[in-house]
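Q: Convert this sequence to structure tokens.
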Amino acid sequence: MTNSVPAHPPEYSDKIDAAVLKIAGVVVLGSIMSILDITVVNVALPTFQSDLGVENYSTVAWTVTAYTLALAAVIPLTGWAADRFGTKRLYMLALVLFTAGSVLCAAAWNIETLIGFRVVQGFGGGMLMPLGMTIMTKAAGPERMGRLMAILGVPMLLGPILGPILGGFLIDNASWHWIFLINLPLGLIALVYAWRALPSDAPEPSESFDFLGMAMMSPGLALFLYGISSIPEEGGMDHPKVWATMLVGGLLVVAFVIYSFKPEHPLLDFRLFTNYNLSISTLMMFVFAAAFFGGLLLVPTYFQQVGGETPLKAGLLVAPQGLGAMLTMPLAGVLADRYPVGRIVPFGVTLICGGMFALSTIDADTSYTFMITTLFVMGLGMGLTMMPTMTAALRTLRSHEVARGSTLLNITQQVASSVGVAIISVVLTNQMKDSRAVQAAQALGEAEKSGAQPDPAVLEFVQSLGERFESVVLSDLAAAFAGSFLVAFWLCVAALAVSLFLPKKHEESHLLDDQGQAPVVIH
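A:
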């Protein structure tokens, strides 16, 4: 590898000193709060559904979709706002928004208010990660970012492991409200810590913000996904609530894409897609994130609804997926520096395809050993897929393009996660509606909760099955989950097909081209 980087000045020290570590502590604490909240809610979905009286699983899944959509919406706003108001003030505002949103979520009285408050929480959480990276780059300089990225990577590795366990513990020992209330003391500590530790910075307004693009993209995505999630409730595509919202949302998104080629500084710079590596990597990221995150959302719910496990036990059973990713993610970083990513990512996606297909074969009697092994293998694949894909996307961009390319990637991942969750949850809801036994069990549960008499037709059906009723319900539930995992498997196969087009040859990095330095030879 060749690189013509200027020598360090005499006063430069490449050691990470206490001042930089103190700032890193603020950023890590904020990252932990944001990342944990993405994963901690997954084990709570069955509890939301029962405690808030929600009929359709696709509706309760909006507590995840709304949060990730808010993250996606606020990411492109963050860079402009940091220049306009200063990173320290904006970071503290993000902490306030996230903490206030968490308290509001804990006070939610129905599913609609919970979804709305999750949007507020997502606006704060979405700014914490990109702002943290900006703050760390300024504090440490690019020469020390490798070691600091290892520190900042800790929350990303621990989130998928600790989130479901923490969520399950709080639900089992307190109530679902505490998965949000725990953010209040953490948020206050982080706020005081940020006020004391972060250096003040003077705002330097640069480019104007694309408010028109924002006004098209965010409502467009929200309306389109709302239409998809309304399919089970309305029984098909022919209801105006479904097709009208999908049509309006789709038109807004198309208008946004067409419009984005006009402004000098668009919200999302689609002109970067003339770079082949970025284009194919972004497509790969979209299909992969929709399949992986949409499918894995169902796993804690399966353990609770079919296995009859507590939320804590479900969280512990999901942890092997995070452990697998923890093992291979550092290895993937080393491999991506030595070999073309087109020779790494397909192997990781193949592991995920195998795991998702294995999940599509489950039934009510599937052993937990099988499930745990499958999740661990999928975690190994995830660790070999995410980082190399992002590396392939960004490494051939010029330095002034990296920030905009990174924004495109982050938006893609969040939107794809929302799309995947919406699609897979709709599939699961429809599968459950096809089972008369599952519908009868849900009707009995709602009647018992409200104190009303069950429908005579439901009672007659239950009596006709006799002692077999419970086993039939569990068998049909497991079949519904298996069918949903099969859809996720085919999406994974599509991701595998796209991964075959990732670069398989050594390339030159153009990161330093616009800084008057020689190119860097990379793999």
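The first strand starts at residue 507 and ends at 509.
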